[in-house]
Amino acid sequence: MRTIIIEDEDLTAEDLCLTLKRLEPTAEICARLSSVNEAIGYFKKEPEIDLIFSDIQLGDGESFDIFKVVQPKAPIVFCTAYNQYMLEAFQHFGLDYILKPFSDESIQRTLEKYRMLRQTFNKSSLEMVQAVGADSKMPDIRKKSLIVIHGDKIIPIQLQDIALCYIEYENVFVKTGHGKEYIVNKTLEEMEHLLGDDFFRVNRQHILKRDTIAFANLGLSRKLVLTLRIDHPIKISVSKEKYHVFMEWLEG
Q1: If you classify domain 145-250 with CATH, what class do you get?
Q2: CA-CA distance, 169 to 58, in Å (whole number)?
Q3: Residue 112 φ/ψ, nearest 5 degrees
Q4: Does the 2-134 domain belong in CATH 3.40.630.30?
Q5: What is the pTM of this model?
C-alpha cells in the first residue's frame, strides 16, 4: 500500500508513520510532505499512490488548497484537531476524518474501511468516481444564493454576484460587483466553504472572487498587494506563505 503523509509537525508525522507500519506491514511511505506548496509540486508529478493521510492546517494554508489545484489520485484520510472541516473534507474525496490525537484503533478502523472499499471497487472504478466528480456536466448541488437581511427586507443575493467577503468589527460582510454591501449571519469560514473554487481566502479578513482582482504588485515585505476592480477602502494583500497557491488559483 503506497502511502503519502502530509503533515507539518515532525513528531506527529513520525508517530503516524510508525503506526501505519505496525498496523499495515505492506504500507510503504512514499513521501512525507509538510506544506501546501511542496504537496502541489509532488502531486503534479502524478505519482502512483494508494492512500493519502493529510493534516488540514499547514504552515502555508489548508490542505484543501492542494486539491483545488491538483486532483487527488487516491482517497484521502484527513487528520486534524478540529471538527469543523468535516463537510469540506468529504467534498474533497475524503475517505475518513480522524481527530487528533489519533489512536491505533482509529487508524485501524480507517485501514479496514480502505480495504473494504478496495475489495468493492477496483482501480478503474476509483478513477471513474474521480472523473464523475470532475465532470462539469454533472448537476451542481452547491447553493446558488445567500439570504441577507437589509433593514426590513429579506434579500436573496446570487453567489456569482459576490465580489468579496470580509470581516470588519467582528461582523462579516459581502460586497457585490455593483458595490452594494450586506451583513451576513455567517462566519468567514462558513462563507469560504459556501462560495466555492472561484473564491480564495487571501488572508484572515478577506475572501476574493477571481475576476474581482485587476492586478497585483509585489510589496516591500514580499507580500502581494492587490488592486481590485471595485472600490474597497481597505488595502488587501496576500501573505508570502500563500503566494504560490494564490498564483496557481489565479490562473484558474
Answers
A1: mainly beta
A2: 27
A3: -65, -40
A4: no
A5: 0.51
